[in-house]
Amino acid sequence: MIKQWKNKQFERWTITRKKGQLNYVLKQTLIIGGAVLFGGFIGFIVFDKIRTWEEYWLDFYVQVSALLVFGLIINYFMWIISETIYEKECKKRRLEKSSNY
Fold first, then answer.
1. Which of 19, 36, 20 shows the shortest CA–CA distance to 71?
2. What distance in Å separates the CA atoms of residue 61 and residue 27, rounded to the nearest whole number?
3. Taking CA atoms, which of 9, 36, 67, 95 is between 20 and 30 Å from 46?
C-alpha cells in the first residue's frame, strides 16, 4: 500500500516538475490564496455583522498582498523540498535497479 502511494506520488511529481518551477509556484499560490480569500469572503457575508463593506475591502486588499508575497515564498520552498525528496527517491530507485541485475 505505501509502495503504491509512493509510486503514485513519484509519478505525479515527475509530471509536475516537467511543467516547471514557475508554473508550480504560481499555481499553488493562486489555488491556496484563492481558497483563503473565498473562505474569508463567505465568512464575512455569513458571520460578520460588525464591519462594513468598505472595511472588508480594505482588509481584502491587505490579505491579497500578504497571501501573494507569503504564498510565493512558501511555495518556492515547497518546490525545493519536493525536489530534494524526488532526487533522493530517484537515487534510491537507480540503486535498487542496479542491484537487481
1. 36
2. 20
3. 67
Q: What angle do CA 70, 37, 29 make, to 5 degrees?
A: 40
Q: What is the dihedral of CA 60, 36, 21, 3, to 10 degrees?
A: 170
Question: Can you tell me which residue has the cell 515527475?
Answer: 14
**Count of CB atoms within 10 A of residue 17's CB?**
15
What is the rounded CA–CA span in Å between residue 76 and residue 99?
Answer: 35
DSSP per residue over 71-82, as a string? HHHHHHHHHHHH
Query: Residue 6: CB partners within 8 Å, gap ≥ 6?
Result: 89
Give residue-wise pLDDT tens across range 7-55.
888 899 999 999 999 999 999 999 999 999 999 999 999 998 888 889 9
Quote the pTM value: 0.81
CA 41 from centre of chain: 21
Yes or no: say if 101 and 47 are a contact pair by the CB < 8 Å rule: no
